[in-house]
Design goal:
By secondary structure, this protein is an alpha+beta fold. 41% of the residues lie in helices and 19% in strands.
Length: 394
């Protein structure tokens, strides 16, 4: 299945079972929301998971674009992405967690053609506050799926306070041959779908208060699902990334890990810009700036003559289309190129200052403050340049 067929199959499965389709929102939460970017499909639905009635009813389905920076250092492996699309289903007090698990296994095996023997589940095993999720454990036994109890890995929360509860995760085997081990003992098990039973609200003192209704929130990364249905080992081998890998490989020939990092960071930057964010020194704009500069640093690792002006508008337009964003590709490319030009100037000035003021690469906290306050050089950039300078001296 290609991307559109995968999305349609997911949505139609739930619509046939009484779920109403909701529209996905942008990466930028509305004013007043303390979260910088939307990080999960449930984020726009928080108030409804806590008990408010939703105008479309108690069973919902949708797809939401998300951004997570917590996994930036993992980018380049087989499964992690900065910006991705999350397929989601929700029961707002209508049906329980075990029913959600039954739906999930039916869709994966009968709708997407995954073999049950290549799947594995995990459930919440209990802690000092909440007992084990016995019903989910029994459901997986009933359905004939191997299951492993854990603690921290199977408790979902929206932060230090707010809605939370036990979850059950479904993993797919990505290795060769017959599956071995469990999700906690073999990293060839890749998580693709999380089913959360939202039962509690965590208060500031750490205690748990039962919610007025128990809801179910599920989230499955579109790109990981496609990795499983395509029978490949990496999200970068799906048709979602094919345009990026094809153009960047033909244009610059980076190694595999660099190709993945550049593709992820530039693709993510395109989507963030498409949602109205522009590079800046604070807030969301700074997240975009750091993301783009990380991509540029990787892009220049083997050849400093590479430039974003070489990216085709067709490539940018393909990404904007996949995320349903209505902005001209030329506008996005102009933002990318302008930020690249600014970063080039900053790097040149930074190298000159460090070589002149700190030729041995030794800086104090006061030095970092001086470089930022007087010359506008962020600490993370200075750290990268110091590493480069010290490496040149060795």
């Amino acid at each position: 299945m290609d991307m559109n067929t995968t999305i349609r199959t997911f949505i139609e499965f739930y619509r046939e079972r009484g779920h109403r389709l909701i529209e996905g929102s942008t990466l930028v939460p509305p004013d007043g929301d303390p979260v910088m970017f939307t990080t999960a499909g449930m984020h726009p639905l928080t108030r409804y998971l806590e008990g408010d009635p939703h105008p479309l009813g108690r069973q919902l389905v949708g797809i939401q674009r998300c951004l997570r920076t917590t996994d930036l250092d993992e980018i380049g492996d087989n499964t992690h992405l900065t910006v991705f699309q999350m397929l989601g289903s929700w029961s707002l007090g209508e049906y329980d967690g075990p029913q959600s698990l039954r739906f999930g296994l039916e869709l994966l095996c009968e709708g997407f053609g995954l073999r049950k023997e290549r799947l594995h589940a995990t459930v919440f095993g209990g802690d000092e506050q909440v007992g084990p999720d016995v019903r989910s454990l029994e459901t997986w036994y009933e359905l004939g799926l191997p299951v492993e109890p854990t603690v921290e890995d199977n408790w979902w929360s929206n932060g230090p306070t707010g809605p939370c509860g036990p979850d059950s995760e479904i993993f797919v085997w990505t290795g060769d041959g017959r599956p071995v081990g469990t999700p906690t003992t073999d990293d060839r098990w890749a998580e693709i779908w999380n089913h959360v039973t939202m039962r509690y609200h965590r208060l500031e003192d750490g205690s748990l208060q039962p919610l007025t209704q128990s809801s179910v929130d599920t989230g499955m990364g579109l790109e990981r699902l496609m990795m499983a249905t395509h029978g490949v080992r990496s999200v970068f081998e799906t048709d979602v990334f094919r345009p990026w890998l094809f153009e960047l490989h033909n244009r610059w020939q980076p190694d595999t890990r660099s190709l993945r990092i550049i593709s992820d960071h530039l693709r993510s930057s395109v989507v963030v810009i498409g949602d109205g964010v522009r590079p800046s020194s604070t807030g969301r704009g700074y997240v975009l700036r750091r993301l783009l500069r990380r991509g540029l640093t990787e892009m220049w690792r083997d050849d400093s003559s590479r430039t974003l002006s070489e990216l085709s508008e067709d490539l940018i337009g393909d990404t904007l289309s996949r995320f349903g964003q209505d902005i001209l590709p030329s506008v996005v490319r102009d933002v990318l190129v302008a930020e690249e030009r600014k970063f080039c100037g900053l790097l040149s000035r930074g190298r000159s200052l460090l070589q002149r003021l700190y030729p041995e690469g030794r800086l104090t906290e006061q030095d970092y403050w001086y470089l930022h306050d007087t010359h506008g050089l962020p600490r993370d950039l200075v750290t990268d340049l110091v590493t480069e300078l010290v490496g040149g001296l060795q």
